[in-house]
Amino acid sequence: MKRHYFGTDGIRGKVGELPITPDFVLRLGYVAGKVLAGADQRLAAGSRPTVLIGKDTRVSGYMLEAALEAGLSAAGVDVMLAGPMPTPGVAYLTRALRLAAGVVISASHNPYYDNGIKFFSADGNKLPDEIERAIEADLERDLVCAPSEKLGKARRLDDAAGRYIEFCKSTFPAQFDLRGMKLVVDCAHGAAYDIAPHVFHELGADVVALGTQPNGFNINQDCGATAPNALIEAVRANHADLGIALDGDADRLQVVDAAGRLYNGDELLYALVVDRIATDGKVAGVVGTQMTNLAVEIALQRLGVAFERAAVGDRYVLERLRERGWQLGAEGSGHILSLDRHTTGDGIVSGLLVLAALKRSGSSLATILREVQLFPQKLINIRLHPENNWQTNHEVKATIADAERALGDTGRVLIRASGTEPVLRVMVEAAAATAASHYAEAIAEKVRAA
């Protein structure tokens, strides 16, 4: 069965429009409670499952949290409320507290008027496709409220932030600290606003915090991992050693060095691979996505490290890592996976891994990455009319074929539908920026006209 509501990162949309409405989310909570409780093999007979709910700082989180809580309670599921909590924090707490599942109310890097729901299984992993399909299959069934004596109860997890802060700190090597370092940490007015600065400060850093005054509407607004100019300016103004930017739910990371140079997820993945080779002797392989810069793939090959591309979306990187038994993977957007540290991408933990790599090597990011010269990429997002038939259009196909023939082994063409937005993404990568722009614009023009 094809998934109708679930995309690559849960269910997402504009608040007030299906599926991000209180009635749908209540039903979703009810159905998910039933399905997830049934999938948890650790429950003793007759015991009641418990689900953790965390959220980011969007004003709509209050409404959706209440709807989810009501739906789960009607299904006979107890609820723990963590309040504002990074997505990876919910994954960690779900596993650490031996809960049936975790739920995050967040639209990640999207504007405040969007929101979404994503689930974690009892082991802190994103739900496999078959569980999401099972939830969708039951959404049309009647909601049958549990009898009063079996309704779920709700309570707040008061020490959620403290537990997660200690977990993050535990992933940083005990022989190092951050004393003497000045860090700018941009929390995007999101879920990590009262968590990330504490983590880096408690490890010894002098922290300059940005994006820590959420008002329900300013999440990701001109700040954070998706708008790093604010971080670049702050690093320079404060003469900081490094800048760390998270997105609204704190599962993405971008890093800025003292010179104001921005490093994306592709580059940070390479830096972590170099560190692992230095400490462990070898890295069997890593996973990127269809969007991973070709220069990184070439540089990894020079190191003798196998590289594979998964579909875009950190869930697919994770699936491929598990299939191969590897530990490191990433997306250029800043989702970095290190499965010996966490079950999911974690911006704070990834930042600590980068800092540990710098401590161990005694080098700067610029030095570590001197062999990696990223190929220019031109990305064009196209909002399509429902009648657009670009996939079967002969002119579109011919233009793509012309671009691929001209680029040969020195570039790539990638066209894909977004898993989180109703747009088509056209990406061309080439050794020269002019070539990337030329072919991307040519393809986009034909797609719009299709």
UniProtKB/TrEMBL annotation:
UniProt keyword terms in alphabetical order: Isomerase, Magnesium, Metal-binding, Phosphoprotein
GO terms for MF: magnesium ion binding; phosphoglucosamine mutase activity; phosphomannomutase activity
Phosphoserine sites (modified residues): 108
Pfam family, one: PGM_PMM_II
One GO term describing the cellular component: cytosol
InterPro entries listed in its UniProt record: A-D-PHexomutase_a/b/a-I, A-D-PHexomutase_a/b/a-I/II/III, A-D-PHexomutase_a/b/a-II, A-D-PHexomutase_a/b/a-III, A-D-PHexomutase_C, A-D-PHexomutase_C_sf, A-D-PHexomutase_CS, Alpha-D-phosphohexomutase_SF
EC number of this enzyme: 5.4.2.10
Active site positions: 108 (phosphoserine intermediate)
Record note on modification: Activated by phosphorylation.
Entry's cofactor comment: Binds 1 Mg(2+) ion per subunit.
Every Alpha-D-phosphohexomutase C-terminal domain range: 379-445
Gene Ontology BP annotations: carbohydrate metabolic process; peptidoglycan biosynthetic process; UDP-N-acetylglucosamine biosynthetic process
Binding site for Mg(2+): 108, 247, 249, 251
Catalysed reactions listed for this entry: alpha-D-glucosamine 1-phosphate = D-glucosamine 6-phosphate
Family the UniProt entry places it in: Belongs to the phosphohexose mutase family.
PANTHER family reported in the protein's UniProt record: PHOSPHOGLUCOMUTASE (ALPHA-D-GLUCOSE-1,6-BISPHOSPHATE-DEPENDENT) (PTHR42946:SF1), PHOSPHOHEXOSE MUTASE (PTHR42946)
Purpose: Catalyzes the conversion of glucosamine-6-phosphate to glucosamine-1-phosphate.
Name listed for the protein in its UniProt record: Phosphoglucosamine mutase
Species assigned in the record: Mycoavidus cysteinexigens
Organismal lineage: Bacteria, Pseudomonadati, Pseudomonadota, Betaproteobacteria, Burkholderiales
